[in-house]
Amino acid sequence: MQSRPHVLLVSFPLQGHVNPLLRLGGRLAAKGLLVTFTTFRHGGLRALRDDGACVDFGLGRLRFEYLRDGTRCPDDPCYLDPSDMLRHVVDVGPSALDGLIRLQADAGRPVACVVNNPFVPWALDVAGGMGIPCAMLWIQSCAVLSLYYHFYSFPEAFPSEAEPDMPVALPGLPTVAAEELPLMVRPEYAGTLWGEVLRAQLGEIKKTVSWVLVNTFDGLERSAIEALRAHVPVTLVGPLLEHDHEGNDELAVAADKGSMAWLDAQPPRSVVYVAFGSLVNIGRGEMLAVAEGLLGTGRAFLWVVRDDSRELLPEDVLAACSDKGKIVAWCPQGRLLGHGAVGCFVTHCGWNSITEALAAGVPVVGYPWWSDQFTNAKLLVDEYKVGVRLPAPVTQDALRACVDEVMSGPDAAAFRMRAAKWKEEATAAVADGGSSDRNLQAFVEDIRRSRLQRI
After folding, report:
1. I want to staple 304 with a disulfide (CB 3.0 to 4.6 A). Which of 77, 275, 333, 397 is the partner?
2. CB distance 374 to 391 below 8 Å
3. CA-CA distance, 10 to 4, in Å (whole number)?
4. Is the C-alpha dihedral spanning 341, 343, 348, 352 positive or negative?
5. What single string gives the DSSP state of each residue in 360-404?
6. pLDDT at residue 62, rounded to an integer
7. CA distance 445 to 427
8. How far apart are CA 239 and CA 35, in angstroms?
């Protein structure tokens, strides 16, 4: 009999979904579980290892075994457009996962628990049909989870086509204006495929999962967490941060292009770090405005410009940026934010980026673009009070003014002080015996007890 319970992690194939689930997997493996990670692999994903590999990742050792549908290769163009990707994954995911779970059992590694993340609700259906306990890793804030849960349960409390500007007031949350809501609860988006898949996952959440693991920590969202616990079995396991071991392999070092070494040569808190995530594309006009705004600050900057966005900048602008700052296609963001030279983070407000910034104690300029990012920007500015929001569409003058406000304005010291406080709380939560560490240990013990009951 296999001695360690086997947990299968099933991710939607976007980088912002993959990263936190991998980090959760590393922590589960460090606590003695056998952990396998799976998704539909494609060329746009980083941090994945070879199919069948078993390697150290973060704090633990993970297996990698990918879903297959027999019709597409990892470089298929369907993986380049998120909506095409969603349609494809919804169509072929269930049968591919069913086959993978059966292969694990045949190999002597029966799955004791399946953990998925947003936009793969079928993973819960497949596992539940096989009698396998299920958990979900919610990769956004508890506040956003509360908004979604209440939207699917009480839609009359949200904006509609008749009342598109209606603000939302929920227990444990500040009043949220219509333009601050996540896209999938707005009238124009709720009926899209994205909205319907999320509804399938969260509409009956208590019936489909035994654990809802959330990438947050108690001090950050205490009132939202307490109010939501009356409806959803949330377990806080965050922040799920990049571990030093993640960025030390040869591929990561080669892709980094020396960003950490460049930072080593900069004065403390002098650098503006700019990154808009793995998906957001702000377009040619706004890319040019960002470049001119960064140059106008007179400060050193490190700007992540993905390969699919680099052509949006004219060669003379790229040359000017390279004289003052550094442009890279990728960097180890979690470790970079922890570097003492970074004084400000201009971010799209994805939840992974926010938790990394808070855990590093770095003030922010928020520029939300999609999904939950609008709510996250509100939290950053109004609740966590660690920065300012950049108006859209970005202009060079507005960007320069926001960076100056965060780094040297009258409130700059207060931003840094509050950011340092969040860093202390995040560090305490994930430390051995901290609140998130204890919650994760309790989850592991639940898996072990559930497995014994099934034997």
Report:
1. 275
2. no
3. 19
4. positive
5. HT--EEE---STTHHHHHHIIIIIS--EEEPPSS--HHHHHHHHH
6. 95
7. 23
8. 20
Q: Is 17 a catalytic residue?
A: yes
Contact predicate 147/197, CB 8 Å: no
The mean per-residue pLDDT over the stretch 108-113 comes to 96
Whether the upstream peptide bond of residue 239 has omega within 30° of 0, thus cis, is: yes
Q: Which two tokens stand for residue 102?
A: 């059966």
272: pLDDT strictly greater than 80 = yes
CA-to-CA distance for 304 and 267, rounded, in angstroms?
20
pLDDT tens figures, 134-155: 999 999 999 999 999 999 999 9
What is the spatial distance between Cα 283 and Cα 276, in angstroms, rounded to a whole number? 12
* Position with higher pLDDT, 214 vs 329: 214
Enter the tokens of residue 109: 């590694």
Name residue, tokens 């460049």.
262
pLDDT band for position 47 (cuts 50, 70, 90): confident
Cβ pair 43, 70 in contact under 8 A: no
The count of other CB atoms within 10 Å of the CB of residue 402 is 25
Residue 163 CA, chain-centre distance (Å), reads 31
Question: Can you list the domains of the chain with their CATH numbers?
Answer: 6-243+431-454 (3.40.50.2000), 255-428 (3.40.50.2000)
- Name the residue with tokens 């706004």: 286
**Cis before residue 133, ω within 30 degrees of 0?**
no
Q: What is the mean pLDDT of the chain?
A: 91
Q: How confident is the model at residue 257 (pLDDT cuts 50, 70, 90)?
A: low
Helix (H), strand (E) counts: the chain: 17, 14
Query: Could you read off the pLDDT of 372-417 as tens digits, one per residue?
Result: 999 999 999 999 999 999 999 999 999 999 999 999 999 999 999 9
Cβ neighbours of residue 196 closer than 8 Å, sequence gap 6 or more: none
Residue 68 pLDDT level (bands cut at 50, 70, 90): confident
Which residue in the list 17, 243, 339, 348 is annotated as catalytic?
17
Distance CA 453, CA 31 (A): 20
Tokens 């969202």 map to which residue? 221
Q: Are the C-beta atoms of 147 and 171 separated by less than 8 Å?
A: no
Q: The tokens of 73 are what?
A: 């290769």
Contact 142, 227 (CB under 8 A): no
Structure tokens that stand for 133 in this block: 């306990």
Predicted local confidence at residue 317, as pLDDT: 87
